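User: Is it possible to get a 3D structure for a protein together with its bound compound? The compound here is magnesium ion. I've pasted both below.
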Amino acid sequence: MSETVVEVNQVTFCRKQRTILSDVSWRIEKGRHWALLGANGSGKTTLLKLICGYEWPTFGSIHVLGRRFGACDLRHLRKLIGWVSSAMCHQLPGQDTALQVAASGLEASIGLYRTFDTEELDKARRLLSHLGAEHLAEQRYGTLSQGEQQKTLIARALVSEPKLLILDEPCIGLDPASRERFLRDLDEFAARDDAPTMVLVTHHIEEIRPWVDSVLMLKNGQVLAAGQPAELIRSETMGQLFNCHCVVGQGDNGYWLRMEMAG
Ligand SMILES: Nc1ncnc2c1ncn2[C@@H]1O[C@H](COP(=O)(O)OP(=O)(O)OP(=O)(O)O)[C@@H](O)[C@H]1O
Ligand SMILES: [Mg+2]
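Assistant: Yes, that's possible. Here is the predicted structure of the complex:
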């Protein structure tokens, strides 16, 4: 029987008298990789924050890796989840070095609260190096460029060898070559037997590679559709999702989308 990594059960999330997510249910099985799509403000990051335990559902329940939030050690659970998000970029301590920030993923902590041994720092350094960012290891995080910060966050998410890897617009700020290298690394990573279950949020459907086998579409905080990419990444569904006319196709390099704006 397949193992459930995330189970979101009829979750509603309200803030300041506004319903941001409404009756969302989503089950992620181990080894199934998802893309999460939706317009700006549709609730994607909020849903991921709930899954990582940074926010709490108003109604409904969430289980991650067999544990229910509220009935387990949140810090332990967070170590099993790697999270790359630009929402996190500014929360990290600017005075720490890129290497320290990358290593802090070992404790899933924002800011350091223990020192890391040589082996742990070497692991963080290897990940930075793999992303072409080893030369930044000793530079203060706050002085890095956007793309350099993003690479540091990616290393931070991977260093704890998570069971669930959440990539919330991971290519933001990456230059074209870095983006392509990163996407290829992800292709390789996804093919590994020990790969974590992955969730990719993106506004660019060309970043949805063949290893993505399911898609969840959120519209105004509700699930519009869930299914296979071949069923959902089509002109009609994408048009419905973004309230526009668009043409979606698939070429040798994956999906592409062309907008057809009125007027
Ligand atoms: N703490 C909060 N208080 C009030 N409103 C909030 C809060 N957090 C999120 N929102 C609102 O909830 C909605 C969903 O936000 P969210 O960040 O989840 O969107 P998103 O789908 O990730 O969008 P984007 O594609 O722009 O990243 C937005 O309209 C946002 O303004
Ligand atoms: Mg977001």
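Residues 93-161 form one domain. Residues 141 and 149 are 7 Å apart (CA to CA).
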